[in-house]
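Chapter summary example.
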Amino acid sequence: MWVSLRGIYRNPGFRQVSIATIVSILLIALPYPVKTTISRIASHSILYPFVEIDRFLLKIDSTFEINRHLNRRLDFLATTLSTVMENRYENERLRKMLGFDLMLPYELKPAEVIAYSPTARFKSILINAGMEKGIFKDMPAISPSGVVGKTVSAESYSAVVQLLFDPACKVAARLQSSRTQGIVAYLGGRYLSLTNVPADQSVAVGDSVISSGLGGIFPEGLFIGRVIDTRVKEGEMFYEIDIEPGTNFSLLEEIFIVTSIPGGN
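The structure predicted for these 265 residues follows.
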């Protein structure tokens, strides 16, 4: 019996239960204010880390919610800014085209580009204006920056414009300074070419190239581009002249079709 009681006493579980029992009896016996103080101390010392973790998690959740709200707001403002900037650019383009329209003595019909030809280098475009606006085949297409090309077909509400970068589109032209005549055509590469200019004529880099009015389609005086390089091969009778067009063909959005020329069609 004695050995058995000693074994029970040495058992760790028995000692823990005994200690807990003694502490419980003491707490029951203590006055209420003391028990309240002990409970408050225990709560602050034992539960404090868990309370702080809970507060920290709440702050993280609140921060995530604020970030989500700010990101949604930022997306909205970015979209709004993009729309405002696009409207601004469109207004600037239209204002420029309106001034260009008023400046020329021709009857011009505005049109929007709605499609490009699916080739490596753009050779034609489709516009949203056609015969209902008096647009027919073989009418000049221009922009405020220069000659674009000519119409090659027209439907009731659309037309196809052949660009200067199509080898089949040629324009009778002249150098503005020397009045030397030539033909603007696309022969390959990055630039247009001014052909049929005799090697004994005066040609300088920077000269403006304008339509000459010959050929019956393009009126006289339309800007085409500027000379950026001239060459004469040994034994040749004509220049090789590179022209950088005034129009950026990859950025065309609106153009004009010349439907009436004073003293012409």
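To summarize the output: The helical segments are 2-10, 12-29, 32-103.
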